[in-house]
Amino acid sequence: MAKRVAIVGTGQTYHKSKRLDVNGVELIHEAVARALEDTELTRDDIDLVIIGNMDHFEGINYVDMWSIDGSGGFMKPTIKLTTGGTTGSTLAIAGYHMVASGLFNKALVIGWEKNSESDTTAAINTAFDPIWDRLTFAGAIGALAVEASAYMDDYGITERDAARVVVRDRKNACNNPYAHLRKEVTIEEVLSSPMLCDPVKLLDMCPRSDGACAVIFASEDVAEKITDTPVWIWGTANRHLYSYINDVNFHGLQSLKNASMELYQKCGIKEPLKEIDVIELYQPYSFGGLLWLESMGLCKEGEAPKLVWDGVTDMDGELPVNPSGGVIATNPIGATGLIRCAEVARQMMGKAGEHQVPNVKIAISTGFGGCMWSDILLYGKDKPY
Fold first, then answer.
1. Are residues 141 and 198 in the same domain?
2. Residue 291's domain is classified under what CATH number?
3. pLDDT single digits (tens) 94-121
4. What are the residues whose beta carbons fall under 8 Å from the beta carbon of 296, sequence distance 6 or more?
5. Does the pTM of the predicted model rise above 0.85?
6. Do residues 217 and 95 lie in contact, with contact meaning Cβ atoms separated by under 8 Å?
7. Short-list 272, 296, 299, CA closest to 282
8. 143: Cβ–Cβ under 8 A, 6 or more apart, which residues?
9. Spacing of C-alpha 248 from chain mean position
10. How far is CA 4 from CA 1, 89, 106, 217, 222, in A?
């Protein structure tokens, strides 16, 4: 029988565009040391290390081997995972399943990226099929621009609607000491920023960050001995629906829609807008902060702008989205989905400081990447049945 699993501690670095003060091993160590300090555990207490990043970006393979001094994985079972943009959320899901299996009581899960030492666009270009995909969708921004254009055409969504998402998240980030971009912006600043790929502009997009995150998962046998505020994993789901970007249906994020439906059904969520207290959405650009709320079933299609303009997703709204500032403010790609997981845990443990949402009992984090694929995790204050 599967074990119930909880997050018992988290740690992350201070994220910046360039962390010239540390190398990759030292960056990883920062996050790991903070997670161990958060739980009052030592490396000797850890049974399993799971680590991942977008090694295709840095061009350095076998992070599970060369980062041992930073991860603390010496003579421990160590697993490396890489699934593109969803790497961080895949790591979180793996941590849950490995501990739930009963093989390990405490798993240290690490995501990291040093984007200042990579060429993200060049790496993504070569990941796309040279005949069918590369000419039209090379790089991440092109595909997102197509999705945004389809969304605008389908429902009359405007660039100003999307800019409101950026204003919200950048404001939230100012209260998060770990966030990369900690400066508020206005709607007019977003709209007047340089065009990248119509209709996506510079301030509609996330940054490229250096950073790392570590999360410790523990089985029900030990979780409540480690912390008084364990964050229980109620369920996970993922969908990788496409192999070629030109096969993607850009009218709604179908992978997130399918994964959300599965997760709600498994966990008994019937009215997500009313039942969920916080969402950390892997949202690398502004239009995703509208369209993907609809894909998660939080409102009807085309109605997300009203949700956002009415303040429903603000810090003091009915369902705060990205109280940490989200991906719009911080994006060390291999760690990004795991940061969403860590930020949910901090909210539920009451450790989120100035960006704390009161009384968080049920929360969600998501991951996004590749050919518009999605991961999703649901967390609860109470033990799952």
1. yes
2. 3.40.47.10
3. 999 999 999 999 999 999 999 999 887 7
4. 256, 257, 260, 272, 279, 364, 366
5. yes
6. yes
7. 296
8. 137, 245, 248, 250, 372
9. 21
10. 9, 19, 12, 10, 11
